[in-house]
Specification:
The complex is a heterodimer of chains A (about 280) and B (about 260).
Chain A lengths: L2 E11 L5 E11 L3 E5 L6 H8 L7 E6 L2 E2 L7 H7 E4 L3 H4 L5 H11 L4 H15 L14 H13 L5 E5 L7 H18 L2 E6 L5 H4 L2 E6 L2 E6 L1 H5 L2 H6 L6 H12 L11 H16 L1
Helix pairs in contact in A: 4-5, 4-6, 5-6
Chain B lengths: L3 H6 L7 H18 L2 H17 L5 H9 L2 H12 L1 E2 L8 E5 L3 E5 L1 H26 L3 H10 L4 H30 L6 H32 L18 H24 L1
Antiparallel strand pairs in B: 1-3, 2-3
């Protein structure tokens, strides 16, 4: 597996002296969804802004596809093209009252010819399912639709890596499923590397291939979701918790002596786990 | 979302805004500079017909919008028509106020008042063509094409966009205040309103920071360059402009010759 983006000992200190990141080392594999978990103020957003060159690291290195990233002024546009960020609140990102024009912004900034910009805007709208909203003003869109428009605005830049800051925050359950389905289709059909932050633990086993736990600007834990759930204390120390189903597995194992593993955190996995333990018990 | 809703529903939605802007300006300038009641009424009828016929707006919508400035117009024209008169001047109607001042209406000023009223109504109707047909973002785009400074156009666009964001924020703050009885008495209401204004200002400040960050991450380097959706050029609207202008001028000439 090739590594799409990697940080080594990444640090960032804000102007007021706040050490937001301290020696963060993580890697996101190409075509995978990597989760960054952590409570509020863990440094997730700061990390993302460093990866896209809006903030320049105070220390450490970032590697894109194996090559060291330069934060020199002339190299920033290239970095921002390759690493796109979708911000948590779409109202922070959508600056134009015209949906079409807002989506075109990133592509126009790349200096592409008009025909290519149009092709990309159309493709991004089709992919995010908002083609029918082109004639609507931004302020007439629902929160869900704004979120999609914000994703489309990053897609037009055709980034290799898409970073999403709390992509499911503030959405209703169906909205959450829709966004996650969209992310899955991006990964599957475009092979896009996705990095997302969340504290909705129930989504982690469903959508993340690998995850990092961040706390106070440091990496406090990492692993595949299954591995992480086997060490619930790491999550609990960091303002996180087990997914509900993994928690159920934990209780079944501890209180009822059922031989199930909390690594089984999805409905399918825990069902198999319970059936297995049940059959073993009845034998 | 105010009048913009109608603009987004307009049948001329996909036509360039520049010819619409010229059509409006042409009709507006002729209507005002002719200084005639007949031209005002003709402008009212023509631009109204264009909004309904070409734009596909419902006539009821237009009438509702036209009713809005009527009160202002009436109040504005009243002092022109009804004025103090020197004793002995002929009048259509006059009365002594408090037995000392003579106030009344003369034929001349009735005509002036009527002209002002019709002229203003025609101008308003022309402006409604502009507000009910191209959406705001198309209009600012047109201004840019007409070489209005880019900075000004970008400011207009940002203000327009964030107007909705901040009015939404203000509404939410207000509801939160009201739910804690912030507007029970006049004094407390004033205080709450002040707090709303100051917290809105702070939020706007922070919003600016966040928006700037978001723009930067999409490659912003000092200009909000975007590509608008394709529009048809709508050069035929210049033909409409010529026709409207011709009818206005003919009306003006007819009125003059009739008055002489």
């Amino acid at each position: 597996m090739s590594v799409a983006i990697e940080t080594r000992g990444l640090s960032y200190v804000y102007e007021d002296g706040t050490r937001a990141l301290e020696g963060v080392s993580l890697r996101a594999e190409r075509g995978k969804v990597t989760g960054v978990l952590g409570g509020n103020g863990a440094g997730k957003s700061t990390l993302f802004l460093n990866l896209n060159g809006v903030l320049t690291p105070s220390g450490g290195e970032v590697f894109l596809a194996g090559k060291r990233v330069s934060y020199a002024r002339r190299d920033l546009p290239g970095l921002r093209r390759r690493v796109g960020i979708v911000f948590q609140d779409p109202d922070d990102q959508l600056f134009s009252a015209d949906v079409y024009r807002d989506i075109s912004f990133g592509a126009v900034n790349l200096g592409l010819p008009e025909g290519e910009v149009r092709r990309r805007v159309e493709a991004a709208m089709a992919r995010t399912g908002i083609s029918h909203l082109r004639d609507k003003p931004t302020h007439a869109l629902s929160y869900k639709q704004k979120k999609r428009a914000a994703i489309a605005g990053v897609l037009v830049m055709e980034p290799e890596i898409m970073i999403l800051d709390e992509p499911t925050a503030g959405l209703d359950p169906q909205g959450v499923s829709e966004i996650l389905r969209l992310l899955r289709s991006l990964r599957e059909s475009l092979g896009m590397t996705i990095l997302l932050s969340t504290h909705d633990m129930d989504l982690v086993p469903l959508y993340c291939d690998y995850a990092y736990v961040l706390r106070g600007g440091r990496v406090a834990g990492q692993g595949t979701p299954g591995e992480l759930f086997l060490r619930p204390e790491v999550l609990r120390e960091n303002q996180l918790r087990l997914p509900r189903l993994a928690h159920l597995m934990e209780i079944l194992a501890r209180e009822d002596g059922l031989a199930v593993s909390p690594g089984a955190a999805t409905i399918g996995a825990s069902r198999r786990e319970i059936l297995r333990a049940y059959q073993e018990g009845s034998r | 979302m105010g009048t913009d809703r109608y603009a987004y529903a307009s049948r001329l939605r996909r036509v360039e805004a520049v010819p619409k802007l010229w059509l409006t300006l042409g009709a507006l300038i002729l209507c005002i500079s002719c200084g005639s009641a007949a031209v005002g009424l003709v402008t009212l009828a023509l631009m109204g017909a264009l909004t309904v016929g070409l734009g596909g707006q419902r006539a009821a919508t237009l009438v509702r919008f036209l009713r809005l400035p009527l009160a202002f117009l009436a109040v504005g024209c009243l002092p022109i028509v009804f004025r103090p008169l020197p004793a002995g001047e002929g009048a259509l109607w006059a009365a002594e106020v408090f037995g000392r001042f003579r106030w009344g209406v003369t034929a001349e000023y009735l005509r002036v008042g009527l002209t002002v009223f019709c002229k203003a109504l025609g101008a308003v109707s022309a402006m409604y063509f502009l507000s009910l047909n191209p959406p705001m973002t198309d209009l600012t785009q047109a201004l840019e094409r007409l070489h209005v400074p880019k900075l000004l156009v970008e400011l207009m666009e940002l203000i327009y966009r964030f107007l909705f964001v901040f009015s939404d924020t203000a509404r939410r703050i207000r509801v939160a205040q009201e739910s804690r009885l912030g507007y029970q008495t006049a004094g407390r209401g004033l205080r709450s309103l002040g707090e709303l204004a100051s917290s809105l200002f702070l939020r706007a400040w922070r919003q600016a920071d966040r928006s700037y960050t978001a723009l930067e991450s999409r490659g912003y380097t000092g200009a909000l360059n975007t590509l608008p959706a394709t529009r048809t050029p709508g050069r035929w609207l210049y033909g409409v402009l010529a026709a409207v202008a011709a009818v206005q001028i003919l009306t003006w000439m007819a009125e003059r010759s009739w008055l002489q």
